[in-house]
Structure formats: C-alpha cells, structure tokens
Amino acid sequence: MASFIQLLISGLATGAIYALIAVGFTLLWQTSQTINFAQGEFVMLPAFFVLAAMNWGAPFWLAALIGIAAALVVLGLLFKLIVVDPMLRYGVLPLVISTIALSLLLKESVKDFYSAQAQAFPPLVPDADVHLFGAVVSTQSLVVLGVAIATVAALHLWLNKTRTGRSMQATAQNPALARILGIPVQRMVLYTFLVNAVLVAIASILISPIYLAKFTNGETLGTAAFIAAIIGGFNQVRGAILGGIILGVLDNLSAAYLSSQYRGAFPLLILIAVILCRPQGLLGRVEERTV
Amino acid sequence: MDGREPLLMLDRVFAGYGKMTILNGTTASIRPAAITTVIGPNGAGKSTMFKAVFGLLPVRSGTIVFDGRDISNLPPRALLDAGIVYIPQGRNIFPELSVRHNLELGGVALSRQAEIARRIEAVMRRFPMLQEKADQQASTLSGGQQKILEVARGLLLKPKLVLIDEPSIGLSPLMVRDVFAILKDLRNNGVTVLLIEQNAKQALQISDYGLVLEQGQTRIEAAAPQILADPRIAQLFLGGGLLQPEQVS
C-alpha cells in the first residue's frame, strides 16, 4: 500500500506536468487549428533558457523568470508571427508539417549551440523525503504537483472569471461567432499562444530536475501531450487535464505492477481503445462538421 | 411606400467566393422600422447578401449605405458600433459557457462594464426563460431557447438593424411562432429587421416588405401582401425563374 501511494503521487506529479503541456496543446488547436508537433520541444527549450541565464550569473529564481520571458517571446509571439500566421493561410496540413520542421530545428539547435549532453537542472526545492500516509514521498513530487495544480487553477480562474478569459473561450468554441459579436479574435489567438508559452515554460522548469535537461526530451513529452489530449478530448481543456493525469498515473503504475518493459506501450493501448470506443475523447464534445 | 429614407441601401453590389460571383449587382432599399423578408431559391445569394452587408465577405464593387453612411467593407466590429447585428443560420452559441456569459459576450462592443450588466438584466426581464437558466451551460438549452438567446444577445447592443438568417430552421412550429412574435415586437419598437426565411409564406405574413432575389439580383421589391399574392413567386420557387426583372421603387 505504501509503495502504491508513493507510485500514485509520483504518477500524479508526472501526470500534472503532462496535463500542463496538453492543455496548451489543446488551446492552440482550439483557437487557431494549430496542431503543434513541436510542443515537446517547446517544453525542452525553456530549460536551456534558464541554464543559459544561470551561466550568465543569474540566480535560479531570476533565471526561471528570464526563461519564462524568453519562452513568451520565442515560443509565443515569434512562433505565431513567423510560423503559424504565414502557414495557416495555406491550410492545416502545411502548418503541421512546419511544426514538425520546427521541432527538428529546435532540437538540433540546442544540440549544436548548447550541448548534446544531459544537463543537471536545479530543483525547485532541496530533495528530501516526507512521510505521507505511511509512504515515503519526495518533496520534489509534491512541489511539482503543487505548482502544476496552482498553474492549472490560475488558468482556470482566468479563463472563467475574467471577461478576457471568457472571450478567449468564446474564440476557442466558435471563432466565426466571436468575430460576429465583435470579439477581437486575433488578439485572443495571440493570448492563447502566450498562455501556451507560459505553460510549457513552467512544465520545463518542473520536469527538467527529474529528467535532466536534454535536447531529446521533447520526443517523449510531445507524444505524451498528444496522447493525453486525444484521450481526454481534443476540444476540452479539462479533457486535456484528465488525459494528462491518467497518462502519468498509468505510466507509473503499469511500470511497477505490470511490466516495466512494456511501459511505453500502455499509453498507446489506451489511446487505441479511446479512439475505437470514444473518438471524441473521454470529455470531448462531438464536433459538428459542415459539409 | 412611406416617404421615409431607407435605412439600408445596396447599390449594384457584387460579391462572391473565389472565382464565383454570387451577388450580381444586387440593389435593395430596406425601409426603417419594418420587417423585410428576403426570399429566393437556393443559391440566389440571400445569405451572401447578409455576409456582404456585415463585412464578412468583401464587396467587389457597388456600395452599401447604412443610415446615410457608406459601410461597404467595414469590419463587423465597426458595423456593431454603427447599430447592425447579424444572427447567422444555425446554432450561434458558445456551448460551454453559461447563458449569462453568452449574453455578456454580445456586449463586447460596449465599453462600459456597468452598462453591459444593466442591459443583461433588462434583457433577462424581457425573456424570463434566460433568467431561469442564466447559470446553465448554453448547450443545455433547446433549439428554440438557443435562438431566443441569440436574439436577446443581439438586442444587448440596442441595434437599429437586425440581420437574421433562417431563424426558424429546426424549430418546432410553436417556437417559430415565438421567434416571429419577437421579431414583430422589435419592429413595433422601431427596430428594422431583415429576415431570410425558407418558410417564405409564414415569414411574409409577419413582414411589411418582401424582396425576391434570384441569381444574385433583386427581382421584386414590394409590400409583403403584394408578394404573397403574386402568382410568379410560386413559379420562382418551382424553379421556373422570372423572365422580366421588375423594379419597384
């Protein structure tokens, strides 16, 4: 039982990080039909912004802020202006291919300009163990879980309790109607890109102490976010949260109790099951298509 | 015709999608404080006309004048400010937002927060159903209730002109009657309503004027009873087409 709780909490922590990434992923899809196949690399990159800032002598907290700010500019603003806006005019597919190209560019750039070696990344809190319900749990996991929950809660509050947030939701749910009502759709879309940039930067800072900062980190993270979004429902923020949590917990539990060799296969099995039985995702809404 | 100036005038408007031209020099004069129903066969350009007026489709040539001002190719936001609202076909709600928040988004074009809240209260007094369901997700409303929500949201801006496209689609006869009654009520309060309806006969019965579009051109503009009594209308809807364009103005 103790080890179950331990696995559950570390699974929740991983899942919460997946959820952050998946939420950004679905937001981009909803407001601008951007299926961002570079989302994993988007999580990989901010850690290197932070490391670079620390190499320049910044203390960790300042470096983390610089990392988030750099992510806002590069992964939010520039991504939208340089990649998405010009490509979206030609349709969703060219944009998808562009994001795949971008993922390669980011990965190779980090490898060439920073390092191909995995880099140690400072944890948010010194590593220690605490006892919780008889289980030994690392403070790392708890902090990750806490920060991720706080981030999602803040996002949720902002989306639901402010007029700007609701205008963003409106833009995501029905952009044509949003325009007809006079909602500044383009500005809302930009906000979505900025929100995504913040989410991936936070995810990056949370996950890098655990996995180390490495240029290949995006490969698994991108796939995880993609699967989480599909499991939960591509058009629902809460779906992405649920999908992320399920994936993280399942990953940890199946590795411990079923087979660590096939740990990578379980998320895919769930993915296949969801696509077969409930293609709109667990919490997804069936989209009406106009012919 | 009463002597008043038309509120909306289209003068030889051309518009379309890509290489397709749908509006072929559409000309129309929409009178104020009246309901005008636009009828015509599928593909005649009825919805296209609304989109062109509301700045969703570029006007390639010709002019659209509203309230004495040229509004051709202005963006939707500017048209909302000018006093036009557009309620397209189908379901125009944000399904996962509450009824209240759906209403509130109709007031984005208003700058003063307090004024929006006041107008939402007024609209809810007028449609108590919306008050009852204010905190429910809009997706839980029936088709007819959603249509009422859409109309109510449009009224938040106190428009001079409402463009409403096929409001009766998918509604029960009872609901259609309710929606039409709201439109009549609007007209009685001085709002100009421009309506597209497949259900042409019923729509013309509540209308003051009718406008018959065919192949992107105005064939007939006349008082509604006159159009209802016109034997050529039946012919038009059977696909016969009119031989002589008729100008009434």
Which consecutive residue ranges of chain A, at least 5 long each, have pLDDT under 50?
A: none
Total strand segments of chain B: 10
Number of folding domains of chain A? Answer: 1
Measure the end-to-end span of chain A. Answer: 54 Å
SSE series of chain A? HHHHEEHHHHHHH
Low-confidence stretches of chain B: none
Secondary-structure element order of chain B, N to C: EEEHEEHEHHHHEHEHEEHH
Largest sheet of chain A: 2 strands, antiparallel
In percent, how helical is the residue content of chain A? over 70%
Short summary of the structure?
The complex is a heterodimer of chains A (291) and B (249). By secondary structure, chain A is an all-alpha fold. Chain A has helices at 2-32, 39-55, 60-88, 92-113, 139-161, 163-173, 175-180, 185-211, 217-232, 237-257, 265-277; strands at 129-132, 135-138.
Features:
heterodimer; A: 291 residues; mainly alpha; ABC transporter involved in vitamin B12 uptake, BtuC; two-stranded antiparallel ribbon; 2 strands; B: 249 residues; alpha/beta; 6-stranded mixed β-sheet; 4-stranded antiparallel β-sheet; 10 helices
Structure description:
The complex is a heterodimer of chains A (291) and B (249). Chain A has 291 residues and is an all-alpha fold. Helix content of chain A is 74%, strand content 3%. Chain A has a single domain (2-277), classed as Orthogonal Bundle (ABC transporter involved in vitamin B12 uptake, BtuC). Chain A is globular. In chain B, 36% of the residues lie in helices and 24% in strands. Chain B has helices at residues 46-53, 76-82, 99-105, 113-126, 128-132, 143-155, 173-188, 200-206, 224-228, 231-237; strands at 8-17, 20-30, 35-39, 61-66, 69-70, 84-87, 161-165, 192-196, 209-214, 217-223. In chain B, strand 9 and strand 10 (217-223) form a beta hairpin. At the A-B interface, helix 6 and helix 7 of A face helix 2 and helix 3 of B.
